[in-house]
Predict the structure.
Amino acid sequence: MNSERYSALIVPPIGPWPRFDPPLRLGVMASGTGSNFEALHDATACGDLSAQLCLLVVNKADCGARQRAAHLGIRCELRDHRHFTSREALDQDLVHTFQDEGVEAIVMAGWMRIVTPVLIDAFPGRLINIHPSLLPSFRGMDAIGQCLTSGAAIAGCTVHEVQKDVDTGPILAQAAVPVLPGDDKEKLTRRIQAQEHRLLPWATALAGQRWRKAASTQG
Ligand code: GRF
């Protein structure tokens, strides 16, 4: 099998993109290279994801996500976790920051910190996360390493609502890819990330339908 000749399985399948009027107002949190953040941006720029990325918050001054935000012209604020006395104190700051910005939901696009009920409860059902495994398998750190060690034949990624326990919460969408002979962490990461960049905007749009429906029934 040619190593990249496969079809990724995405469930629910990517179909017509829902339109939001006005567009979703999203906050994003990231700690890493920011490729998922950029995928969200690209999906809004091409009109697939009907959303505005209002603010990116990063916790590392030198992370790639911050550089990408500068390049893409998206406002970015730094919240260095080491400057807060507790996880809750950081999360309280995030709540104020995103509420002041008027965001309706937050996407954790590679936020490498455990979040607390302070943040989760301020955005009930409106805080979503992407994780590089087919949850509920391989929760927590080094999910791709865990997958390789396990001998699993199928890997993937999941977008889910955030709950108190790490990498749990209702699943919005998943993408599956094969683990191929000769895979190492780098190769498998690349294959998974290619699907993350498709899945995250799509799952955000699916979640957006729920958010707007809930908002309309609340009057
Ligand atoms: C992704 O693999 C995501 O699943 C995990 O963190 C990584 C972030 O990558 N939560 P990037 O910073 O978006 O490139």
In short: The pocket of 5-O-phosphono-beta-D-ribofuranosylamine is lined by residues 30, 32-37, 65, 109-110, 130-132, 157, 193, 196 (CB under 6 Å).
